[in-house]
Amino acid sequence: MQAAAIVILNYNGKKMLERFLPSVLSNSIFPIIVADNASTDDSIEFLKSHYPQIQLLHLAENTGFAGGYNKALRQLEGEYEYYILLNSDVEVTQGWDKGLIEFLSQNPEVASVQPKITSAQIAGLFDYAGAGGGFLDDLGYPYCRGRIFDSIEEDMGQYDDTITVDWSSGACMAIRASDFHDHGGFDDRFFAHMEEIDLCWRIRSSGRKIYYLGSVEVRHLGGGTLARNSPKKTMLNFRNSLLMLHKNLPKSRFLKVYATRLILDLLAMLVFVGKGKLGDAKAILKAHIGFFNLKNMYNRHSMASNLPSGSNKNIKSILWHYYAKGKKQFTML
């Protein structure tokens, strides 16, 4: 069995591959595999002509981030001890992959680890996805050190540490192959967004740990497949948050949380309407409808009740801290 593989999921991402793949090739020691999610652009032709040394996995249809990675990693099962899942719009630094895999090999109790993720758009700022390590509040809202909602901190070395976190970012996460497969991989229903948070919740419920390694840095562009201001992204985030809570919380706890989420999500709809973002307001309604359509398509994970709060940080409501108390940085919490 080989040590590790860097697996990049691609969907119509020729421009991202042109821009970011050179840094991955020049700064990595492990083999690179591109799994193509049935792209309709000329991504495959570009890779074959410019990077014939890269292994390609051809997926028959686009099943999103969750389904695409599940299919790709099933093909690789048994070949590698570790996977590094990397978005196609990430610029990496020298030794990044070695650092992540060495950390996992030296800490057998850790299932997954992410690096520090800064912005490839604005130098010196943290990125939206993962930033300095991610957490969940009791209502299922994710937040990060370095980024809470739309407030993004400058990277001044304040999160160059190594800590346990609630989840590792799908933009760049190293994970033991055994942990990925033993815990069922990503939930296909999610399609995209928050599937890594759900997987990390299930992994932690079995007693395994998730870590952030601030000594390794990558830079993420973001929005390479779906723009951050897209109503579809809004729908996926709200819907998948509910799916995650439904499958990972005890039923009695979920019902209480859902009642609160209904009120908060209604308020979010009104805020979007007030800002003239009708598409986002409709997206929240579609999210709840989608949740009810999908919620019974997955058996609850029996071990999830071992973590009723789902978090290491024990923040009841990040919304309350952010909007009511004005705590817009992690150090204020």
From TrEMBL:
UniProt superkingdom: Bacteria
SUPFAM superfamilies noted in UniProt: Nucleotide-diphospho-sugar transferases (SSF53448)
Stored InterPro entries: Glyco_trans_2-like, Nucleotide-diphossugar_trans
A Pfam family assignment: Glycos_transf_2
Domain Glycosyltransferase 2-like residues, every copy: 6-113
GO-annotated molecular function: glycosyltransferase activity
Keywords on record: Glycosyltransferase, Transferase
Protein family membership: Belongs to the glycosyltransferase 2 family.
Protein name: Glycosyltransferase 2-like domain-containing protein
Organism listed in the record: Belliella buryatensis
